[in-house]
Amino acid sequence: MKDTTTINAATAGTFILAGDLPVNRMGYGAMRITGQGIWGPPKDRAEAIRVLKKAVEVGVNFIDTADSYGPDVSEEIIAEALYPYSKDLVIATKGGFTRTGPNQWSVNGQPKHLKAALEGSLKRLKLDTIDLYQLHRFDPQVPVEESLGVLKDAQDKGLIRHIGLSEVSIQQIEQASKLVKVVSVQNMYNYGNQRWNDVLTWCEQNQVAFIPWYPLQAGDLSAEKALKKVAEKHNASEYQIALAWLLKASPVTLLIPGTSSVNHLEDNVAAVNILLDEEDMRLLPRK
């Protein structure tokens, strides 16, 4: 039987987000507490609520969500499960997508849409201020000055504490940085797909949080073999090694693995107890 008494997200260490928000580096991504295709309510709402409560119980104090998850559903369940929130809990959300059906995502950086998305998130999460609000994507049809202008205005009004970006290049980060202070970047990144290594390095140099999503790359045979070899050594799953690698690869990574199962959540958080050594990192190099 799994011993959960030694599972604590704080074991991964903390990152001081924006220089003023200490968060444990093992967080939780709330995309999966919705229906199939990230659409509609979850199959088991009670289990989704248990997952969120368990996450906080095992030391997670950073939860990442978005208005587009459901849409609305993820934020509603977070509030249902955890409100009133503990003082140290940081809830990050995002705006910039329009949903029309399961697995359907349309970029929408129109100021009117972002304003409505932010207002909806504040209401659903029962918050006066969102600690971290992220622009889900740059919209090629909308000048970024207009999209970020809405967020900057909301920040000036106290509705947003800090602003982050998602799926961006260094050029886009630097463009945005002329308009707002960027405190986090959320890009797809894992051992098997290190496309954004240059962005990760930029984040390290600027003490900006790097939030990798999709932590396990499926279908990369060489990556899978290396992860499996290290997993066997540590008596762990490849997924746990993938998470442990992300923690080891850089001090600015802030993990948000998602799940709709309490058992899977515990397995994810248990990855903080896996200490990869130099031999492991030679097998799993940052490229």
From TrEMBL:
InterPro entries: AKR, Aldo-Keto_reductase, NAD(P)_OxRdtase_dom_sf, NADP_OxRdtase_dom
Domain of life assignment: Bacteria
The keyword Oxidoreductase appears for this protein: yes
Domain NADP-dependent oxidoreductase span(s) in chain numbering: 25-283
Annotated Pfam families: Aldo_ket_red
Alphabetic keyword roster: Oxidoreductase
Residues of the signal peptide: none
CDD domains: AKR_AKR13B1 (cd19088)
PANTHER family associated with the record: AFLATOXIN B1 ALDEHYDE REDUCTASE, ALDO-KETO REDUCTASE YAKC [NADP(+)]
Protein's recorded name: Aldo/keto reductase
Source organism of this protein record: Xanthocytophaga flava
